[in-house]
């Protein structure tokens, strides 16, 4: 069994991690993380575990994330982020993937397998694979990468970041590239059937109540996304966004 840890970088309340007009980086990161996990779930022989707060309310400390992944025995770690430059709008652009400094053949191999999918998904300038002394790739005891999927303060990149389809495709394509890198095969149960069996645990009344909460969250500007596809959300997504609504409502 291959075990991959992952996270959406930061949290909703992390200072400075936002667009010049206040959209939170975590909201972009979260959409990729969810799509990554959902796509990976159709493969056999792999387990994934998320190490940030999936509601975004708490910015889980970096040492708690890396300690969690190490203690769980993860074989790989992927951290999803979006870049920033001056916190003012500019025309810088591109995606990049980071590994730790020095001789890191296993992390480099993972980055080389994943980075082309990132470039293709965003359709932005390829800024390459880089080495940096970042906690998340330094303190993990397994091959680890940190993905920067475009600049939040770029007038070019922000159009991609605000497109949910781009972010969902990025998560899916990264999962597919990871699966290919690890030699994973899709499970015998078709994706749609498997998802329905695993994730339908709300009754119709519960689903409708969750949808109404999410729609109210949009109207009250508690969500940065418009959630236009709420009627297509599965039960896990409905519950997650409803919890996020309640958490933000009670702040």
From TrEMBL:
Domain MurNAc-LAA: 66-179
Pfam families from the UniProt entry: Amidase_3
Gene Ontology, cellular component aspect: outer membrane-bounded periplasmic space
GO BP, one annotated term: peptidoglycan catabolic process
Keyword annotations: Hydrolase
Gene Ontology MF terms in the entry: N-acetylmuramoyl-L-alanine amidase activity
Protein name: N-acetylmuramoyl-L-alanine amidase
Native species: Lysinibacillus antri
């Amino acid at each position: 069994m291959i075990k991959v840890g992952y996270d959406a970088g930061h949290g909703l309340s992390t200072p400075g991690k936002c667009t010049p007009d206040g959209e939170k980086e975590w909201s972009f990161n979260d959409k990729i993380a969810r799509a990554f996990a959902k796509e990976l779930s159709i493969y056999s022989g792999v387990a994934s575990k998320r190490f940030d707060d999936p509601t975004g309310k708490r910015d889980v400390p970096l040492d708690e994330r890396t300690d969690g992944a190490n203690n769980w025995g993860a074989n790989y770690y992927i951290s999803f982020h979006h870049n920033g430059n001056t916190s003012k709008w500019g025309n810088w652009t591109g995606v990049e993937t980071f590994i730790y400094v020095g001789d890191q053949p296993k992390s480099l191999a993972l980055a080389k397998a994943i980075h082309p999918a990132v470039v293709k998904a965003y359709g932005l300038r390829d800024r390459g694979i880089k080495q940096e002394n970042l906690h998340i790739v330094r303190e993990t005891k397994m091959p680890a990468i940190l993905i920067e999927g475009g600049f939040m303060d770029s007038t070019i990149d922000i159009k991609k970041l605000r497109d949910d389809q781009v972010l969902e495709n990025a998560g899916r394509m990264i999962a597919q590239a990871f699966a290919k890198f690890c030699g994973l095969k899709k499970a015998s149960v078709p994706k749609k059937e498997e998802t329905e069996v695993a994730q339908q645990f709300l009754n119709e009344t519960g689903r409708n109540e969750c949808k109404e909460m999410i729609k109210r969250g949009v109207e009250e500007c508690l969500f940065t996304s418009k959630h236009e596809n709420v009627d297509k959300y599965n039960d896990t997504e409905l519950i997650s966004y409803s919890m996020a609504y309640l958490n933000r409502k009670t702040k």
